[in-house]
Amino acid sequence: MFGEELRRRREAAGISLRRMATILHVSPGWLSRIEREQHYPPTHLAAAADTHLGAGGALISLAAASDAKAGHLRPAELPSGPAAFVGRSSTLRTLDTLLARAESAGTTLTVALDGPAGAGKSALAIEWAHSVSSRFPGGVLFADLQGFSTTGRAADPRRVLERFLRALGAPPERVTSADLDELAAHFRTIVSHRRTLIILDNARDPRQVRSLLTGPVGSSMVLITSRRRMTGLTVQGAAHRVPVTPMEDDDALALLRSIVGDERVDAEPAAARALVERCAHLPLALRIAAVRLAPHPHRPISGAVRALADDRDRLDALADGGDDLAVRSAFAGSYRELAPEAARAYRLLGLHTGPHISTPAVAALLGHSEPVAQRLLDDLVDFHLLDDISTGSSGRYRFHDLLHTYAGERAAADESPEGREAAITRLTSWYASCVDRANYIIAPQRRIELLPPPPDVAPLDFTDAQQAAAWCDAEAENFVPIVRLAADRRQAAAWQVATRLWNWLLIRKPWTLWEESHTIALKAATSAGDSEAQAWVSMNLGEGYRQSRRYKPAREHAQRARVLRDEIGDRHGQGWCQASLGFLSIDEGAPELALTHFRQALERFRETDDFHGETIVLAALSEAHDLLSAPDEAEDAFQAALSLARRMQDLYAEGILWFRHANAHRHRGDMQAALESLNSSVQCRRSVGDAWGTAEALALRGDVLAQIGDDGAARKSWQQAQDAFEALGDTRAAELRQRLTGDLPSALADQ
Question: Which GO terms describe its molecular function (predicted)?
Fold first, then answer.
C-alpha cells in the first residue's frame, strides 16, 4: 500500500511527518491521512515523494495501484477546448493559486466563475481544467446544468448526480435515488476518497448546485460557471468568486490574430479593433466572426465590420451595454455563410429540446442518412455553431444556450410550419422506435408487439441487452424532453416512449425519470382520448409508485387502469391490472384479496398465451397460498412457475419465483431451504441487472441468517441490501438501517 510504503521510506530517511509535509507542500494532517490509507495519494504528490525519497518509481506505481484498487475507471469527461484559446492569464493565475493553496492545506476547493453570456466562462474553465486534470487521479466530471437554457428547464440535480455516480463506477444498484439528499451523500462519500475535479457549467443559481458540491472531507475541487454571481455560496464562504469579464483589447486582438492571421490584422488595425468593438469584446461573438472570415483571405475585415454594423438591433444592444443582440448578430453573420443544407440542419437542431443529441438522432431529425448528417454536423462544428462532445466512436453534440436560441429563431423564421412539424415528428418517432427495440432486446421474454417502422427514419438495431441498456443510459437525459416535445404536439410518441421504456426502468429504477415521463405521458394520452394508452401508462406509473412504497397513488393508478381495461374489453391488459392489484394486496398484508386478483390474472394470461405473465402470477400465487397456510397449493404453483420460467429462459421471473419460494420455506420453518432459494434468487436477479429485486432478496437473506444465529453474515447481507435500497430511494433502507444499528433479536422481533 502507498501510505505504508511512504511512511516506511520517510522514517528510514529520518524525516519527520511535519518536515515531509513541508517538503511536499501539504498539511501534516492530510499527509497523515494518506499514510493511514484514508485518502488516495494525488499523482503529483506521489511523484514528488518518490523523487525526494529516491524510490525509483515505486511510490508512483503504488499510487496508481491504490486508485485501481478502488475498482473504478478514471472518468475523463472534459470536452475539447477551443482550438485557439488566448489571454485570460490573470484569471488562470488566480485559479492556479487557489488550487495550490487547497493542495497545501489538503482541503476541498469550490470556485465560481461568473460573468455575462458569451464572455468565455466555459472555454476558460475547460482550458484550465485540461491543464490541471493530471493532478486529479480520481478523474474529471463535467455537466452542463443548462441554467439559462431556452426551454427554461434547468438540469435536475438528481439526474446529474445519477450520471456522475455511474461515471465514478458506482454499481447500478447504487446509482439512482428518489431522495436528492441521499443521492448527494453517496456522491460526497465517493469523491471524499478520490481526488476528483468536478466542472459544473452554466449553473442557474446556488440552489441548483448545492447538492452537487463536495463535502468538507477530501481534496476534490468543484469549478462552477454561471451568468449569475453565486452570492449564496460566496457569502457563506462555500466558494471563491472569480469574475470573468469581456476581454481586454490586447487579448481580443490576440484571439482574432490566432484565427485570421497576423498579416490581415496588421493590414487593417483600425478595422480589427472595430470588429472587437462590434463583438462587444465577447470571445464567443468574436470567434464566430473571425471563423467566418478565416476561409476567405481576400475578404477585408472592414467588410465584416460593416456587416455587423448594419444590424440596428445590435447597435441598440451595444448602446445598452447588453450582449444578447450583439451575439445574435454574430450568429446571423455565420448562419448566412452556411450552405443551404447546413443552414437547414442548424435551424432544425433548434427544435430539439434535450441537452444533447447523437448523430443518428440528427439524421432522423433532418431526414438524411447518417453520413450526410455527419457531414453537416462537421460543417456546424467548423463554424463553432455546435459543440462536439463525442466520446470514443459515439458522435454526440450540444448547443451553447445562445446558439440554441438563435437556431430556434431561425427555424421559426426560415422553416415552414409544415417543415418544423415534419422534423419533430421524425425525431420523436425515431426515439419511440429505438426505445421500443431496446425494450424488446433487454427482456425478449415479455410479450410486446413492436411498433411499425416509422417512415423516413432508420431506428437503431441492438445486438444484445447490454448494448440496448447502454443506449438507454446514454439517452436518459433526453427521454423526458422528447416525451414533453411529443406531448406538446399531441403525438402518440409521448406515451410510446414512456411505456416502452418499461424493461429498462425495471432494471435501472430511475425513479425521477420514471415518474416524470409517465406523468407527462398520462396527460397526453388523456388529452388524446386514447383509453388503451391511458391504461398502460397508469399501470406502469402505479407500479413505479408501488415499488417505491407509495401505495396510495399506486392503488389509484392500478384501479384506474383496470377500469379502462374493462371499458375497452382488453383481456390481456386486465390480467396485468389484476396482477398489479394482487401485488399491492400482498404488500399491504391482504393475502386473501391478493389470491382473488391473482386467480383472475392467471385466467386472463392463459386465455391470451402470455407465458411470462403466467409465470409471474404463479409465483405470486405460491406466496399467497403459503401466507394462507396452504402448503400443497403453494408447492404446486411454485413447480408450475419454475417449469414455465426455465422453458422460456426467463431469469427475471425465476428470480422473483425463488424469492417467493424462500418466503414459503421460512414460513414453514425450513431456514436452510429458504437460504438456498434466496441464493438462487440473488443469482438470477443479478444476471439480468435487477437491482431492486437483488436488494429485496438480500434483505430477506439477512433475516433468515439472523434467525439461524449467523449474525455476521446477516449484517453483511442487510448492509448490501440497505446500500442498494438507499441508492434506489426505497423506504426499506430505513428499516434495514434500524436493524443494523440495533441488536439482532430485537430487530427481528419487530418484523
Answer: ATP binding
